[in-house]
Amino acid sequence: MPVLCRSFLAWNTATKLKGRGFPGILVRLVESQSTTQPLHALPPEYPLLTLVPFSLALVVPQQLYQVAYAIWMALAAAGIYFMLLRYRSRTAAIAFAVYLMIGSWATAETRFDLLTAGLTLGAVMLAARARWKWAFALLALGTLLKFYPVVLIPPLLIAQHLQTKSRWSSWRQWSGVGVFVAVCAGVTAFSLLLNVADTVSPFRYFFSRPIEVESFPATLVWLGSFVGYPLHYVFTFQSLNVISALSSKISLLSTVLLVAGLLYTFWLQWQRKIDIFMSSLLTILVVITVGKVFSPQYLIWVAPFVAYVGRCHWKWLLSWVVVATLTTIIFPFIFVDLPHIINYYPVVFARDLLMVAIVLALLYYGSRNKAMVEEEGKSANHGVVEGRA
Questions:
Q1: By the number of CB atoms within 10 A of the CB, which of 15, 99, 133, 232 ranks highest?
Q2: Cα–Cα distance between 307 and 310 in angstroms, integer?
Q3: What domain range is 29 assigned to?
């Protein structure tokens, strides 16, 4: 069945290309591509490099595959731990381990998000040390595993401009972005040669997804059900989603809040009120918190940055341990009883509301921060003044 679906997708893509007047050579390329050859059936929602972490575990017999994969992810977690230990502090490394064990024990070793989280943390660390080309190269690799690291381009660009004082029209300012584009373009071109239909499929997948059941917009849909807008759940796009007459309006509101939150974060960094680490943390938090999709493994994306910025300060530990605990209650425990998830929805609402409160608090304290961050990543005031947020 999966082979038939992929063959239909390739045929459908070729038909659309032909109908829109694309060159015949491109149409014939799509028609000739087989999904039955090795490495030609690409993931439906992720880029080509996603095949790498899943292929690494193939070095062992099939019956040990899951064990080998878990070991690889454990090594990735250890790598992030030692990055924080070496380049931040022992308390930051311990905080990361705590967040991972409480909030992501069910997902850390079964997903590949730890690899992306490690690459994004490494990119920001390199940027803080003015290693711009390497920073953008790591960011590109992270983007080619999961798309979300692309949102960190503005924080890196702003940090580079504040540090180098280069003109926006100079090549020096854009050389790092050039590396990012070159890496992404090269891998994408290779992916297109393997399978055009599956290469473009993740973009269709992303833009067509409805509101996912764990997201903050979904909690607004849930609240709408109490004032005459009934909702129902559908399992599509490999996740449980909510449908309501309010869905389109809430999706629009979510997009507006997302853009506003990102722009304000970038403005705070531009004004030197927050550094590159806090800007990166806020950027990812805004994407997760007000975006229309929120899966349990997304906590892995921010855990290294929460640990780096907050270390073991009690306010950070308390707030994020509560978020992690509620997330674990949601998945895997509540998800065992999916048909009756509406009965447990107050837990989802509490977790999402707490995350919104955390984002608003960080933005507020960032806007009140008077200290100018002269050197990105080297100031003792990483983000907002520690102890206030």
A1: 99
A2: 5
A3: 1-41
In this structure, are residues 203 and 283 in contact, taking their beta carbons and an 8 Å threshold? no
Angle between helices 90-103 and 298-310 (to 10 degrees): 150
* Residues in a beta bridge with 236: 239
Q: Are 29 and 156 part of one and the same domain? A: no
**Alpha-helical runs (H) found in 88-210:** 90-103, 113-128, 132-145, 153-164, 171-194, 196-208
**Residue 232 bridge partners (DSSP):** 243
- The pTM assigned to this predicted structure is 0.88
- Shared-domain flag, residues 231 and 323: yes
Contact (CB, 8 A) for 179 and 206:
no
Alpha carbon distance 112, 305 (integer Å):
17
- DSSP code at position 304: H
CA distance 175 to 331: 42
Judge if 32 and 163 occupy the same domain. Answer: no
User: DSSP letter string over 193-223?
Assistant: HH-HHHHHHHHHHHHH--EETTSHHHHHHHH
Span 288-305, pLDDT tens digits: 999 999 999 999 999 999
Q: For residues 140 and 157, state if they share a domain.
A: yes
Query: Nearest to residue 79, comparing CAs of 44, 55, 114, 109?
Result: 114
pLDDT at 381 over 60: no
Averaged pLDDT of the chain: 88
Distance CA 23, CA 380 (A): 57
Mean pLDDT for 317-334 is: 96
Q: Say what the pLDDT of residue 152 is.
A: 99
Q: How many CB atoms within 10 Å of residue 152?
A: 24
* Rama region for 53: left / alpha / beta (φ>0; ψ in -120 to 50; rest): alpha
The answer to the question of residue 375 being in a domain is: no
63 in the same domain as 33: no
**Total number of domains constituting the chain:** 2
Mapping DSSP to helix (H, G, I), strand (E, B) and coil, where does residue 378 land? coil
Helix (H) or strand (E) holding 2: helix 2-19
| Burial status of residue 140 (CB atoms within 10 A of its CB: 0-12, 13-18, 19 or more) | buried
